[in-house]
Structure to design on (551 residues):
């Protein structure tokens, strides 16, 4: 008689997580180096990267779907990240960069992935010509392509913050919104501005394949707010230490799924297994919300006093449990708090409980930043730049990743709604501080690396 | 070790108890030359629950097809049938 490997109760617990608590693998992201795709024209670079991506990733979607079927674990997205394109196409003009972007889009469509990340530049200390060309090509690229995602790293704890780039990106975000005005500025949902960007992040829109990465790698983004919500709801009387432990145990189990999928996928594809990103990634579905977890912990509404503390506990417990479950942890690894992609966050904004300022405070204790937030269309570029600077400063001083993905929705005012649909969701336009930051932003230059950088 | 070489599947059947559940499921398995290693039945949260561990090494049909046949049989009997690789459970609950 063969003994059970696990007990029937444990089998049913797993089934329950998968069936009713929306446990899934959010993304299998294949990182591909494009460092061998350099050239002197858009056609040369584009042709090379198209051939490489469509060759290397030809089986990605099929393998993902096979694993999903055999193991019964939903895998929501199959995606690709590539070497920051500014490095690959450094000699090209903005016009040519836009063309290269269209090759990326076509390659993504050909292999069947819904997003490809890496229309990116790392400019934390300054620009090369190619960096500047790429940044200036972002609005047209995001307006003219469907699947390309862009990101720019404007600061690191080691280098400080490039405020010239921050200022420029305020304008780039405005231009991107205007070029995609017909769809409420959806282009901005595909653009992330980072401080301390990770090189192995599997999540869009900020994924790129860093320069220290191997030729090809598989990174996994897990999910599971619903599973954590369930365990928190089941223990209304637990004190916070006990609750932390319960969340840790749950995070461990969720992460093991990511570890399994990552190992199997990399083995079948014959590529290195990179990392599991220990993130709680919400979706607009009811019960799949980080805000609802915070509320289940005892807050009347997400955003009220106590929210930052509750989020800090949640984020830490997820990391502690997850770190034990995976051989390699990386990426962003933390709870995400995107507004438009989290039904509880949307409701908290609507109820007047959650504000932009509170969200900023929350980003100092979790991953990753001001994410998927709609702002009035007339928000000045300098104010957007100042929002980016604030967020980057939090990352800079706390040696963590922070990011900004905001949408100044053309023609919309506070209280209006933007609608993207699907995983990107919908969001109420939030209030922005009306006092000007112009003169501060226009000073430009670099905010020096903080004393925390001097660790040697 | 990843269970890529492993052929053990876990079949779970959840619903209301009735005549013919084991016969229905095991008939399909026998026809596909899938060996049953263990069966357990229990009532969990008010539902009849059957868990089967099977070895699909010598299976004459592809996993996807086997799964479809079992899920269809489950629907006929008013039951929810899941077929998953054993590693899903082993990975989550054992180190």
């Amino acid at each position: 008689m063969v003994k059970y490997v696990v007990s029937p109760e444990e089998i049913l617990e797993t089934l329950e997580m998968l069936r009713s608590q929306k446990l899934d693998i959010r993304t299998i992201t294949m990182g591909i180096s494009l460092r061998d795709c350099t050239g002197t024209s858009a056609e040369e670079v584009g042709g090379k990267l198209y051939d490489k991506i469509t060759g290397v990733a030809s089986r990605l979607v099929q393998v993902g779907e096979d694993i999903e079927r055999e193991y019964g674990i939903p895998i929501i997205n199959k995606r690709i990240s590539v070497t920051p394109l500014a490095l690959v196409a450094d000699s090209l003009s903005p016009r040519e960069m836009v063309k290269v972007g269209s090759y990326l889009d076509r390659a993504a469509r050909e292999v069947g992935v819904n997003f490809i990340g890496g229309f990116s530049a790392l400019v934390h200390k300054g620009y090369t010509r190619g960096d500047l060309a790429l940044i200036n090509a972002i609005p047209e690229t995001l307006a003219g392509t469907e699947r390309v995602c862009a990101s720019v790293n404007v600061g690191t704890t080691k280098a400080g913050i490039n405020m010239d780039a921050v200022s420029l990106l305020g304008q780039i975000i405005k231009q991107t919104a205007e070029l995609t005005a017909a769809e409420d500025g959806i282009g901005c949902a595909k653009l992330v501005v980072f401080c301390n960007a990770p090189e192995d992040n599997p999540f869009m829109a900020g994924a790129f394949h860093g320069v220290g990465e191997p030729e090809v790698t598989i990174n996994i983004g897990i999910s599971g707010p619903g599973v954590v919500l369930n365990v928190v709801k089941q223990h209304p009387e637990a004190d916070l230490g006990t609750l932390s432990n319960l969340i840790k145990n749950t995070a461990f189990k969720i992460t093991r799924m990511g570890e399994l999928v990552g190992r199997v996928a990399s083995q079948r594809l014959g590529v290195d297994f990179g990392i599991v990103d220990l993130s709680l990634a919400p979706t607009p579905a009811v019960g799949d919300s980080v805000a609802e977890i915070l509320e289940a912990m005892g807050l009347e509404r997400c955003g009220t006093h106590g929210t930052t503390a509750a989020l800090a506990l949640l984020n830490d417990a997820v990391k502690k449990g997850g770190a034990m479950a995976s051989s390699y942890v990386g990426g962003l690894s933390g709870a995400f708090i995107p507004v438009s992609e989290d039904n509880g966050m949307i409701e908290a904004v609507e109820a007047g409980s959650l504000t932009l300022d509170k969200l900023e405070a929350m980003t100092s204790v979790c991953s990753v930043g001001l994410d998927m937030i709609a702002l009035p269309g007339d928000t000045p570029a300098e104010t957007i730049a100042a929002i980016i600077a604030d967020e980057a400063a939090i990352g800079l001083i706390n040696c963590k990743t922070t990011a900004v993905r905001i949408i100044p929705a053309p023609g919309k005012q506070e209280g209006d709604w933007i609608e993207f649909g699907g995983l990107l969701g919908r969001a109420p336009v939030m209030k922005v501080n009306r006092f000007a930051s112009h003169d501060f932003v226009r000073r430009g230059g670099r905010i020096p690396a903080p004393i925390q950088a001097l660790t040697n | 070790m990843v269970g890529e070489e492993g052929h053990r599947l876990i079949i779970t059947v959840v619903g209301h108890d009735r005549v013919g559940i084991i016969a229905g499921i095991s008939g399909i398995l026998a026809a596909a030359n899938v060996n049953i290693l263990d069966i357990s039945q229990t009532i969990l949260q008010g539902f009849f629950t059957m868990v089967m561990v099977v070895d699909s090494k010598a299976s004459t049909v592809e996993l996807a097809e086997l799964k479809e046949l079992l899920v269809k049989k489950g629907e006929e009997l008013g039951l929810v049938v899941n077929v998953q690789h054993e590693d899903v459970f082993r990975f989550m609950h054992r180190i």
